[in-house]
């Protein structure tokens, strides 16, 4: 019975997030009403508040879901080139172009909503960075199993923070920013000793092998 309840709750949350994303796209963040979301999903407003606590909690969940969607595209982009720089240039460029067209991110960055939402990508961006660091470090280790996991996490977090910074305050064309971030990732995992980090020894190089 509990498994069924958990499944139903997850379905309600997913439905609410999908409806909320549609409402934001149509009316902006300020036009999003919890009552409207609840009515469209077919639950009470209290059920919605139980799931997200408040509108800000809904915003956090929306941004995290968007992050997961972005990461799926990033992981796909990382397969489109044979070299590290090419892979990460494609991945970052995908992220920046997709972010520029996304209605939720537009709401986050607009003047009318930025005081409430912008911290989700700046001072309160910890959950987004943690999810991205874990997923992207895994992608690095898949491509380069010789890299130390700590180095992979450093590279992934640096790439994430730089990409978010460019999304929030773009100072260069997307292509230039993507090339810069890709080069930094390559230097992290290509010359780790220069950064005070170490690579994991290959099986052939371990003593007793």
Automatic annotation (TrEMBL):
<dbReference type="InterPro" id="IPR001647">
    <property type="entry name" value="HTH_TetR"/>
</dbReference>
<dbReference type="InterPro" id="IPR040611">
    <property type="entry name" value="AlkX_C"/>
</dbReference>
<dbReference type="InterPro" id="IPR009057">
    <property type="entry name" value="Homeodomain-like_sf"/>
</dbReference>
<dbReference type="Pfam" id="PF00440">
    <property type="entry name" value="TetR_N"/>
</dbReference>
<feature type="domain" description="HTH tetR-type">
    <location>
        <begin position="10"/>
        <end position="70"/>
    </location>
</feature>
<keyword id="KW-0238">DNA-binding</keyword>
<dbReference type="GO" id="GO:0003700">
    <property type="term" value="F:DNA-binding transcription factor activity"/>
</dbReference>
<protein>
    <submittedName>
        <fullName>AcrR family transcriptional regulator</fullName>
    </submittedName>
</protein>
<dbReference type="GO" id="GO:0000976">
    <property type="term" value="F:transcription cis-regulatory region binding"/>
</dbReference>
<dbReference type="InterPro" id="IPR050109">
    <property type="entry name" value="HTH-type_TetR-like_transc_reg"/>
</dbReference>
<dbReference type="Pfam" id="PF18556">
    <property type="entry name" value="TetR_C_35"/>
</dbReference>
<feature type="DNA-binding region" description="H-T-H motif">
    <location>
        <begin position="33"/>
        <end position="52"/>
    </location>
</feature>
């Amino acid at each position: 019975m509990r498994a069924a309840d958990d499944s139903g709750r997850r379905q309600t949350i997913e439905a609410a997030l999908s409806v909320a994303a549609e409402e934001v796209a149509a009316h902006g963040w300020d036009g999003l009403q919890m009552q409207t979301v609840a009515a469209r999903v077919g639950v009470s407003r209290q059920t919605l508040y139980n799931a997200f606590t408040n509108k800000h909690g809904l915003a956090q969940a929306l941004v995290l879901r968007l992050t997961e969607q972005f990461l799926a595209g990033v992981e796909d982009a990382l397969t489109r080139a044979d070299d590290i720089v090419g892979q990460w240039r494609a991945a970052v460029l995908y992220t920046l172009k997709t972010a520029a067209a996304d209605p939720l991110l537009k709401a986050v960055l607009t003047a009318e909503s930025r005081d409430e939402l912008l911290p989700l990508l700046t001072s309160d961006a910890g959950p987004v960075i943690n999810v991205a660091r874990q997923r992207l470090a895994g992608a690095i280790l898949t491509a380069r199993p010789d890299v130390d996991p700590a180095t992979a996490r450093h590279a992934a977090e640096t790439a994430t923070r730089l990409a978010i910074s460019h999304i929030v305050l773009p100072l260069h064309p997307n292509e230039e920013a993507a090339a810069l971030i890709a080069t930094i990732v390559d230097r992290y995992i290509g010359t780790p000793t220069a950064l005070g980090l170490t690579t994991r020894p290959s099986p052939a190089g371990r003593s007793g092998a």
